[in-house]
Amino acid sequence: MIKLVPIDAVQASEYNPRRNDEKRLALAELSLRKLGFLLPIYADESGEILSGHQRHLVASRMGFQQIPVEYVSGKTPGERRAVNVLFNRATNDLQKQDTCAIIRRRLYETDIEAMTGELPDIEPGSEASFPCVYALRRMDVVKLAKLNHRSFDTHIKQLAKSLERRIGSAMPVVIGEAGNVINGIGRLQVAAEAGRKVIACVKVRPEQEAFASSMLNLLSMDFDMESTYADDLRFNSFMRERNTRETDAEGNAIADGDVIGIADGAIHAVGHSVSDVVMGLLEHMEADDCDTCTLLAGEDLSDEDFQALQERIEQAYEDLEIDAHRGDQPLYPIVFSVE
Asked: What does pLDDT average to over the chain?
């Protein structure tokens, strides 16, 4: 359930893995001025933001006193980190091959002035600034699916399904005047295949559609893995530099130079290659029961080795959707999550 709450009722997480790019923050502010909150901010029960850090920041600058929030319950710190990363991909209607660099290039090539020149400013705090609250409507799933089925995509659907399972609810779908999906095609596909009758939708005006599509699908911040996971990275560096022997969570010896795999704060896989350790962690994390695996390649992992790892995972887990990107984080050759 989406609620309007005081803006200081939620706060940014310390581990948010997105770089605050001032150019894109300016676009986020422009989006709120011209479109309002089409989607809510998501936070856990303590008020820690899971999705919407940049909108929360610019809303504060703009003088918003309230913001729309949907609360997600029962998340451990590790689960919150995983959800935080998943939100960044699962809320954008992007193809499997769309990397952060590709998204950024598309965004910066967009003629924002032409899209927004005729759009009036929305007063912060007015009902018009909260369409995900005041303009939320329940729409017929079958009718929307018939209109948009040609845009259905297995990869986008799997990410949407994973996010829905993680947060325990379905995000609204943003649609145009004719029922065309602006953002949320994966969420609609999940609803259609599950046989649901209705789905929550926010409708934008025809003159808002192009700008809404760019902001919802292309305005994504880069990952900053080094500062986000600094404690984990320092721990990994410490383990690599030691000349003494240690043991993993099962008591197995770790030799100097071994690759280690950490999950839930403990070492659960040890080996001589990154690929073997990743496969060991996937087994430990019960990847057979998961839908999606998000991989971020470190700066020292070559494209060839990264591709070989993806192919090995795909062969071992045929039903697991692979969402692979270059994070270029130091020390960790791979950071990944399974949903």
From this structure: 83
